[in-house]
Amino acid sequence: MSNQIGRYLVRFFTFVVASVPLMVSAASSDWTKRWLDRPWEIRYVLFVDDADMMRIGFARAKARNARVGPDAPISRDRDELFPPQSVYRATFRNSLSKVYIEFNQSGTVLTPNTHHNVLFGKRDMLDYLLLIEPESSDSRPYRLANWAQGIPGDVSFSPAVCAYEDEYRYEEGWNKDHPAGNFGCREWTAQMRDSNRPYIDVTTYIPHYNFIGQFIGWARFDDPSKPVIGMQGKTWLCLHDCPAGEKPGVIRDIKAWTQKHHFPMPERPPKQPQFPNADYWDDIHEMDGD
Fold first, then answer.
1. pLDDT of the residue at 17
2. DSSP symbols for 119-182
3. Spatial separation of the C-alpha atoms in residues 33 and 29, rounded to whole Å
4. In whole numbers, what is the pLDDT of the chain averaged over residues?
5. Mean pLDDT of 40-63
6. Within 13 Å, how many C-alpha atoms sit on residue 103's CB side?
7. Where does residue 55 rank: exposed (0-12), middle (13-18), buried (19+ CB within 10 A)?
8. Average pLDDT of the segment spanning 266-273
């Protein structure tokens, strides 16, 4: 229990710190004036996390949004809209849950929500991805994710849809034993765009065990569907877009599974995170003054 409380406090602290820029910027302008006039590009967004963390987040989001009030210059927590949709149990590790949010090309959310209202995706001038609810008396949008333009000159992992935790995951000093894991939005995007990779492996590989941490996945309308797999403790899981009509769940024998689908075996990457800011220091700071 103490370990779960500690994990929640880490997640809660990260959430509060990362939400501050959106709160401050909202105070200076009408929400509707911030939308970018451009086609919606995102086919789906996928959130995966510890099942207990997702359950707690969903339970508390509605009260948190109501406590702030509709007149506050702050976006709402989208956890209120989408309860965890699946639970994946693994041997010797915590269970996982996911939330899958699907869009059509007009930006309309196709996934049912707890308000039973129509939702639309919007990107604003600060590169926040938000959900708006026109039928609601509360005009505040729900914060969904960040649109990260990435590193100047590098298109292998950018642009990408990123979670707030990713702002810290690639910074110097990131704790590689952090419960959020070392697989983030840059790793997802790089694997999604790599035509030689038939699946996306979301495993955090560390010396003493492997696990699936907290991450966000996504795809555009022209991106190919790829199975999303990962190792949670000693259990391999297929979380999304499983091949040949297979249902998400446990992969009982990863070697037999890869052979069946003519896939290569997953391999541990040379390092994780694979694309830390430190590797792109000159590109990131090329516009800095002397």
1. 38
2. -EEEEBTT-EEEEE-TTSS--PPEEEEEEE--STT--SS-SEEE-TTHHHHTSTT--TT-TT-S
3. 7
4. 87
5. 95
6. 25
7. middle
8. 97
